[in-house]
Amino acid sequence: MNFNDEVILITGATSGIGQGIAKKLLELGAKVIVNYSHNEENANKTKEMFKKYNDKVLFIKADVSKEDDVKEMFEIIKEKFGQLDGLVNNAAYDKINSIESLTSEEFRKELDVNLVGRWMCIKYAIDLLKDSKIPRIVNIASRLASRPVGDSVAYCTAEAATVMLSKCCALELTPKYNIKVNTVSPSLTLTPLARQSYTDEEIKATAQKNPSKRLGEVKDTVNAVLFLLSEEADYINGENLNVNGGILLV
User: Fold this and answer.
1) How many whole angstroms separate alpha carbon 169 and alpha carbon 233?
2) Active-site residue, selected from the candidate residues 36, 93, 124, 155
3) Which residues have CB under 8 Å from 67's CB, separation 6+?
4) φ, ψ of residue 164 in degrees (nearest 5)
5) Cβ of 56: how many Cβ atoms within 10 Å?
6) Active site residue 93
7) In terms of pTM, does the model score above 0.90?
8) Tens-place pLDDT, residues 88-116
């Protein structure tokens, strides 16, 4: 796949899957906008990691749940590059809470980042994407869009809604602007955050439940996203691609 001179925005891209997508796109010749919300330490580490791509990478600090931040981000992209070929909505937020202990403020926060934020990024990306030859949007959701778990009602709800968001946007934006919109839903992936959140024993036990006998790696989701961003995926639209080794089968 060749992404030479394409301009692609990845939200939440200074760690884990988002960082992996950005890295691979830069290696394949794309110009990449790396968005992050607040973690300056991760941003600085990512800047160091990508320093050889200084002329092709732009870091923008913006909270995708705040409309003013989102609008400003796209104004910066337009001024810097004058084009946008792909949007990867990867930014996400999750906090474990039972239904009874979850506050309305916390519920809204998860919806604001994981759903409203994705919609706002799509809305403000359209003006640039519609002029691209192969405009693409990929929303990163979760296996929990398809299978609920306890103590995650807000997150599961937002991820399921993200799948429908992609379908609605595909239905509306493809006839108008040829913008293809899809979802990628990974299962538990071995990111630095996951390794901090689970013990080795928990990771091993979870892997054994999967038909593939392992957990997801960042590259698994990266490869799926890159395919959907590419010309090769031109006839795939409004779909939810589960990247999970088959865990939804059991």
Assistant:
1) 17
2) 155
3) 120
4) -70, -35
5) 15
6) no
7) yes
8) 999 999 999 999 999 999 999 999 999 99
